[in-house]
Amino acid sequence: MHLEYLLSSCPFILKVFLILCCLFLCVLPLGLYFKNTSKAVNYWIFFGTGPSLLWNSKRLSEWFAEVFISLGKGSFYIDGPMFSKLRYLVTCHPQNIEYILKTNFNNFPKGESFREAFDILGDGIFNVDSDRWRMQRKMAHAEFASREFKTLVSNTSHKVVQEQLVPLLAHVAEQGSSIDLQDICSRFAFDFNISVILGRHENYLSIELPSNELAAAADDAQEALLYRQIRPTFFWKLLRMCGIGEERKLKKAHKKVHHILEDYISHTREDLLAGIKTYGLLSTYIRALEDKTSILFSLPKKDTFLRDEMLNFLIAGRDTISSGLSWFFWLVSKTPAVETKILEELIFLSSSKDREDETGSSIRNWPWIFGAEDLKGLVYLHAALCESLRLYPPLPFNRKSVVKKDQLPDGSTVAPGIEILLSFYSVGRMPWVWGEDCLEFKPERWIAENGKLITEPVDKFFPFNIGPRTCVGKDISFTLMKSVVAAVLFNFHVEVVKGHHVCPKPFINLHMTNGLKVNIKKRTI
Ligand code: HEM
Known about the structure:
Layout: H1 2-9, H2 11-37, H3 50-55, H4 60-71, E1 75-79, E2 87-91, H5 94-103, H6 112-117, H7 130-145, H8 147-175, E3 178-180, H9 181-198, H10 213-230, H11 233-242, H12 245-273, H13 281-289, H14 302-334, H15 336-351, E4 355-356, E5 362-363, H16 372-375, H17 379-391, E6 397-401, E7 406-407, E8 413-414, E9 419-423, H18 424-427, H19 431-434, H20 474-491, E10 492-496, E11 517-522
Parallel strand pairs: 2-9
Antiparallel strand pairs: 1-2, 3-11, 4-5, 6-9, 7-8, 10-11
Helix pairs in contact: 1-2, 8-9, 8-20, 9-14, 10-12, 12-14, 14-17, 14-20, 15-17
The protein binds protoporphyrin IX containing FE.
């Protein structure tokens, strides 16, 4: 009755309704055809995998792992709405990953859509392919592997731990208040990176927990970049064109980051000209760009390159380290047996360095800070860090494009236009890859019967990537994380605040949505 009234009183609405019905009936066969030809999971007629993708956009890592488990296989396709070009192959199949990252590396560059989505990275190492990437990689690899840089890393991590991290935690312990350990790890990684990359000292990790323009702008940019990953390209491009929403925030952050880095570059140049002693990657790169024998000498737009490359190093080193440490502390706090074993190893190491008083009893100063070199040989600590990275890889995905049509080892086919998402997060959670106990935090799986570390299983452990684009910061990451973990666990009890809910924040870096609220107490051993 109501509908009749509505239709008779609004003939225009009726007409629109009838036209829409006709359109729907005409397009329906096409929609059904797309549905039948698509191999995508959770395919909705007309909308592709879009609705499931949107529904799970805040928990993509976990959703992917669930889909792999429910399908019982290591790859699936995602299709965008009908007529859209959006198509992904998501895989956690170790042989596929090895094939893409190593065996047929040249067929799977980052590609133009990655470059477009991550335009803030400019021509930095993360964002380039082919010969340009090879040149930047050669330079970065040589620098990261140099003795000077490794010494700078060891000294700087010791200094930041001793002079900033431990005094701050001692202060929190004294106050008896709780603190967000994820924030502390992020501040630690920021100060460390600013020091070894830009050669400057920042005090972002200090009792006052100050704000920092560069750190805040980098956070804003990351947040906004996340939206670009989960929204259709046309949508974020439209927002960018109109200068609204997340895109507006990104533009502001982009400008700020560039401005601050350009300042750092000009100050370092001035210091070099004035003959002031400098350290860090920035000054090494400035010198290399002016050195006729260097591979970087022929590069055009030298300052733009410097800015982009330093930004890439900063982003590469900060969020990965802070994520790796935060998940590690959380896992250890939930697994007291692991904490006990780490402490036993540290006590053994420290007892070889104890001083003795006049009665012959050993004296151990508080706080006790271990040297980075001493920590290198610790088997259990290394195993626990690998185990934590297996379950919570700081970069949960890697994204690749396709140059030529190819078939992956598990039979999945990929062709130009499709994007591949390598789900490192899921690899660690597949029983058919890591065994039925794959969800358990078990450092023992990394230790052989003779007590030695099992050589890293390169065929199923990907947190640092594998192949030609393996992380150049892998060694320094272990140095850094061991220094922090040893100092924190040896000198403090870390206890997650009761009722604090920990869950992964979506995409790019695997942070915790609500941080990691902990209580800190002084520990004397
Ligand atoms: C736990 C810590 C870390 C993890 C898990 C990690 C992981 C990764 C991964 C997965 C990639 C490949 C990314 C891609 O291809 O898109 C990568 C690349 C890279 N990482 Fe790390 N990273 C860590 C720490 C660091 C640190 C501390 C630095 C240096 C300050 C660093 C520097 C780099 C660079 C420069 C690349 C680019 C390599 C290339 O494209 O050739 N990383 N890292």
